[in-house]
Amino acid sequence: MLISPTNKPQIFITMGDPSGIGPEVIAKSMASPALKGLAVFIVFGDMDVMARAAETFGRGSFRLRKLENTESQADPDEEAVNIIDPGPPLANSRYGQPTRGGAEKTLSCLDAAVDIMRRSSAETPKALVTAPVNKEKIAEIHPGFVGHTEHLQKAYGSALVTMVLVGETLRVVPVTRHIPLREVASALSVDLIADTLEQVASNRRMITGGEDAKIAVAALNPHCGEGGKIGTEEIDVIAPAVERARKFYENIEGPVSADVVFYKALQKKVDIVVSMYHDQGLSPFKMVDFDNGVNMTLGLGHVRTSPDHGTAFDIAGKDQASSSSMEQAIRLAVRAISTA
Amino acid sequence: MLISPTNKPQIFITMGDPSGIGPEVIAKSMASPALKGLAVFIVFGDMDVMARAAETFGRGSFRLRKLENTESQADPDEEAVNIIDPGPPLANSRYGQPTRGGAEKTLSCLDAAVDIMRRSSAETPKALVTAPVNKEKIAEIHPGFVGHTEHLQKAYGSALVTMVLVGETLRVVPVTRHIPLREVASALSVDLIADTLEQVASNRRMITGGEDAKIAVAALNPHCGEGGKIGTEEIDVIAPAVERARKFYENIEGPVSADVVFYKALQKKVDIVVSMYHDQGLSPFKMVDFDNGVNMTLGLGHVRTSPDHGTAFDIAGKDQASSSSMEQAIRLAVRAISTA
Prior knowledge:
Two copies of one chain form a homodimer. By secondary structure, chain A is α/β, with parallel strands linked by helices. Chain A is built from twelve helices and twelve strands. The first copy, chain A, is globular, with a radius of gyration of 20 Å.
């Protein structure tokens, strides 16, 4: 099912929260001449919401085609933007006013996309691009929801997923993600770090677009632990993990002091920085790539990207949202497919 | 004692490790036309080491004057660079080859400077500028030595000292410093953060050179703890500390997500960022101010600054070391005196 007439990659896009800027940035991206023809686009969203967004922000440059029966051999239309609406229709969705119903539709669109991607043929190259969701509202109906990455990990039954932030200037990979800082040191293990490094190394061409990549691993403690005087995780955990991963891929350096490794990355002496925790990677990243970051998830069997911004309810529907990050997420997904 | 004929500020400079680049960058700074006449300079160092550095790197632009008896009313010479050598002379000091004797002399120069500063009249404005030391070698003769900041805190009997990194682009203050990351969360308290904020606020003009300063406080956990879902320190510790400190100085904001606050600082929406731990502040700082950072210590009764580089034994004596950071440290010390 969902077999493209040609062998063009399929980009599955989820709408995200209908009251946020998701539908708007998707419509603007679909209207972007730079993306035309790059892939077959299939949006999982509410038909009415997407039709409104297409009308307001699509500038008449594309048509929507609803795929009525996703179980059939329905071929997506390469010339149109294909919509799959898992139903039921969302009533009275308003920009800037998130609702429980909107969160339910957000989640059902995401789950429909995952379901179809998991069951579809491996022959057609594909990737998932997700628009931003309202985590709090989704958590009300789906307790424990903390974000796309973790939700997809469960849905795909993946042993390890890795979050990669890809920007124009930096590329960073936090080994641990949305956990309290006081739990970080205990959450690190040789296996977790080494497995992450190997997943990053395996996907380095997706991440950098280049053939090779210098990967550097940040230390956990100040001054790289100063030989064990300020913490022992560099000696006990990080160095052994790097040693193990280097047998798989040699071009890995570390641990390197956190206050040196990002400077080296800025100087292009390092291509990908693997950080031990969320803010260690994200703070430097957002300094230089605040507006042009793309979030990439590895370990799902196909790549998933998303713009590195939130629902932005305050500006939704006002034609103030830039689709630049969404367009980059789509471009990166296409590139990832071609280098996979 | 050490009363300048005029009311010029006195800048006390410690030599640092004699085998490192300390003597070289001091001599180059003393030769800098930009610093001439800004202050009365008194260097605590080995006479032979400083004479050699002055000869090699001073370019004949200043003379050294040894103050023989620091207990007398010896007036420092405003036209010369004054040297106080606590003795005994250091034999056979070689660049690039740190020795135990060199470490002993480093420490005795530092302690002599502290001793004289603590006992000298409050009338003459003064500040301390320290050249880099070899922490490992000093720790061999003085167990527990982890760095200038902590050593000076003990020597001055200060209840709280605060380390400030002052760069051209950013100014950051880590609340905790050289401790393992796993101990950071437990080391934070409302009092420590609030006291640090008040010390920073009291010295904001020293730090920024301006009248007012917007101070922002970084969160500890990812996404600022997401309302307690990813850690509770924002709610239990940081927010109450900010609330307390705002009664002392209003222009304090926080906690702000770490991956947002440094971006805001880069955009000049924040003047000083107070971070919860070493790398949280130092990693962003070194990205943009790697080569021009100055370390400042508050809480000693007078300001202390130092260049933000190490002993650099590998290039010592080779005329490769830049005195730019040392010169900035001296300039910042002079500015701190004038705004104190």
